[in-house]
Design a protein that fits this description.
This protein has 11 helices and 8 strands. By secondary structure, the protein is an alpha/beta fold. It has one domain: Aldolase class I (TIM Barrel, Alpha-Beta Barrel), CATH 3.20.20. Strand 2, helix 2 and strand 3 form a beta-alpha-beta unit. It binds phosphoenolpyruvate. The site of phosphoenolpyruvate has 14 residues, from strand 8.
Amino acid sequence: MNKQLRTPVIAGNWKMNLTPDQAAALIGELKPLVANADCGVVLCAPFVDLAAALEAAAGSNIQIGAQNCHWAADGAFTGEVSAPMLKAVGVAYVIVGHSERRTLFGDSNETVRQRTRAALDAGLTVILCVGEYLEQRQQNITVEVVRTQTKIALAGVTAEELGRVIIAYEPVWAIGTGLTATAEQANEVNRAIRDLLAELYGRDAADRVVIQYGGSMNAANAAELLAQPDVDGGLIGGASLKAADFAAIVRAAG
Ligand code: PEP
């Protein structure tokens, strides 16, 4: 019933794929396919593709996001991009704490908190990724891990700012592997995240937060996952690179 308080969001994470021309072509293909979507549609592009993606998506219902941001507004951080810079070029969303950033590039719960803070300060909507490793699931500490990641990332985030936070539950073992959490597993963890939000912000605020599932979601399994009461959309990697597959997931969310 409370699901009616939330509009699902399907977000694509292109990762390190597509040149600007390829990005524009994919958006051109996607636009008519998702024009009547009953959910939010977001594409998170590599930094160098943002301008082309924004231009290609202009006037459509597709919103553009980035895949990371630095925690400082500016300064001596060679190779980095700040949240105010993203805002200035017209980006609306940013992924923070993706497991590939945590695992391969040293992101910690604390730097994820700092990036979240910077993104919210810049006026962006954050897609905050949390999720457990396979060993942690096997040790039955999934909920503990995800609660800790969420709680630290949201430290200092106000109830009002929570309106610009989407949480993506992404079990690390399911990302890019073809393995998907069962619909029940996804819903159980999403429900636990919502219960944590209710402890922190009250049930009413918690019921309004979009909590996605991500991890090998595709055209075939999306409908079952998205039908779960606490799964409000998806963060899609591989399947977001094919217009027909991504559009099918968007339709499944409607
Ligand atoms: C992701 O990158 O967030 C993701 C869920 O990837 P995939 O859909 O390819 O598992």
